[in-house]
Amino acid sequence: MRIRTKLMIAVALNILIFVGVIFFVVRPYFIEQSMERDRLAVDSQIASVTETLVNRKSSLERTLVDWAEWNDAYAFIQGKNETFIDSNISEASLDNLNVNAMLFLNRDGDVHYATFQKQSLSLTEPEQQAFLADIASRVRADANTRSTIYESEYGPVFYATHPILQSDRSGPAEGTLVMLEFVSSHFVADLSAQTKLPLAVGLTEATDTTITSRDGLTHVVIPLDTVYDKTDYGITFVVEPTHYQNTVAMLRLGILALLVLGVGLFLSLLWTIHHVIIRRLMGIGDELKQITIERDSRLRISLNEQSQDEIEQMAVSMNEVLAALEDTRAEVLDKAYRDALTQLPNRLAIEDYFSSARGGDDQIGVIGLDLDDFRRINDQFGHRTGDAVLIYIASRLNFYKEDGFVARIGADEFMFLHPNWTLDELRPVARRLTKDLADWSEMNGVTGLTTTIGLDVFALRHPHHTYEVMMGRLDVVLHEAKLSGKKRILAFQEIEDGSHYLQTLEMERDLRRALENDEFELYYQPIVSPHPFAVRGVEALIRWNHPVKGQVSPGLFIPIAEQLGLISDLGCWVLRQAVSEMKEHSMRHHLFLSVNVSKRQIADGSFLAELEDVLAETLFDPHLLHVEITESEVGGNLYELQQFIQSLKTLGVKISLDDFGVGTSSLSFLQSLQLDLIKIDQNFVKGIPENTFDRALLEGLYQTFHTLGLDIVTEGVERPEQLAFVLEHSSSLIQGYHYSKPVPLAQLEHYLKKTVTLYDW
After folding, report:
1. What are 513-557's pLDDT values in tens digits?
2. Beta carbons within 10 angstroms of residue 602's beta carbon
3. pTM > 0.70: yes or no
4. Cα(258)–Cα(93) distance, rounded to whole angstroms?
5. Greatest CA span in the chain, whole angstroms?
6. Residue 209, number of CB atoms within 10 A of its CB
7. Of 526, 590, 536, 530, which Cα lies nearest the Cα of 730?
8. In angstroms, what CA-CA distances link 452 with 288, 339, 381, 474, 671?
9. Which of 269, 403, 583, 636 makes a 20 to 30 Å CA pair with 602?
10. Would you say 222 and 209 are in contact if contact means Cβ atoms under 8 Å apart?
11. Which residues neighbour 443 within 8 Å (Cβ) at sequence distance 6 or greater?
């Protein structure tokens, strides 16, 4: 799609979006605002009508109270004030009070006196008497109603009642005073004048104020029982929504004007964009396309000197970019493959050289040079001296390279490649480089400047010998040379079958695979109480069944797992597997289960998290679980270890100290850890009973630990005479080959069936 079409579509869409926003967002907003204003106006009118009714009712009730709570009226209802009527009640007084009739009812509810405003209704005397009697009967029938409007033969009537009391409101009520008013056209006209609304009064079934829209008008019904007691009448009026009508008319006119304006704007922009922008951009595009076809960066875009607008400035900038590209293309390519300090090729250039060499040569001789402790040289002698060292090495490599290739591949690492060279040809160059560096350091006073050099003869025809393999072999030989003391020359062929580093890498790969493929197994060594004989617990010990090497000793793979950070994964596996396998046996024989934890597991929190999950999932009794901390790992962050032990005790797990005697912990230090059990290392038992010193030391340990209230396990008991010594001097538990070596789960089950006696631990 052409840019002109896209621009036109974009302009049209923007206009449509603008109009759409007006129609779908602004228009509804203004309409909603106008409707809200109309609603507020209706609410205000409802409040005005209600307030007027309340005020009218309150005025009548105040007048009623003034007359009813009056000593003269009180005496009158008792028949003691014969001048009360002449003095207080007349046609003028009813008119002033704004009431149409007044009734004095005695205690029995009978009419004591009644007066009727003559001009209120054209009623005969009997009709008036019948009407007033009807009012009196309604008051007697519903004494609790104080004010109401009811339907009479002469239309709706409002009346209010109040008991007749003395002025101080004392004494019993002697009767009831009733004042009433006809809800006539005069009454409605008076309300309409006060509220400035065309009000009407009529019967209604509504119990709440209702607002309905009909025929474009708002109809309002206000039930009078919201103001008066027990009435079926309501006030109705109609409101015209003027705000809404005005807003709709205004919006219709505005949207029509916007549509006309939008069409005109679209046509104007169409012409302007085509003649001012599109046509000129298409010309520049055609010229750029021609430059691309010819691949000549010396070509330039033609300029219009009479025009100084942004498009012309863009054309000028493009010409400047083309000129800069022409000048910097070679520099960019060179810098991408060259080290800025030594001007030697870098690692990217080596990969290109390797690809070209692999296409024509059988093998390649490789020298990797790595300066020893180069950071110390920079820190001690300054970075200028460090840079001088690097530049000197680069110059010597260039001197010896002949038809080969040299590069700087790291901060203090260099590489020398030569097609078809052998180790016999590489070694002299490596020795001369070592001597050259020693001479330069002595001449410039840079003491301690040495280098480690790795050699390799790499077969290029081998299908799996890639660039990555070559660099990996060089890293291995340099790493092995550094481990063996630095400042030496070592060939990959010399370590290919015996490199500790290679073995470590292989062991790491195998360990990770073993965790994924479930190659590990648990052995269990019983912990025995000799008198009476009972198996009290078992210790879980991990074993590795390598698919090729067979059984791998824990003494070999555990340190490597620690070094590589895999010990936490192994420890979590041992915990979960041991609890799963021993849960039934621990409950049946009441055996405790011991598992080991390393310092790394304590530090990273993995053991505690896994322990909580395992206990929650398996419901294993935590009191039957012992966590063994090796004494050689006790120390360092004492607070961290105490927190770890406290967390275990909170869970109900017991703490054992394994291999006591091989570390350097003091007895006071051990006491602060709140241990439950001490496992004395087998080195204390080996010389028993022949070695006098070992006997005395072991006796002292037994006495001390028994005094501290710690349970003891003596490890490494293999001979009967060792067992006899332990039994003679302690009540220690025994763990050793005398009873059983570590065995798989199946053999442990067989052992327990034959030997375990239930014992309350």
Report:
1. 888 888 999 999 999 998 888 899 999 999 999 888 888 888 888
2. 24
3. no
4. 69
5. 153
6. 17
7. 530
8. 55, 21, 20, 12, 50
9. 583
10. yes
11. none
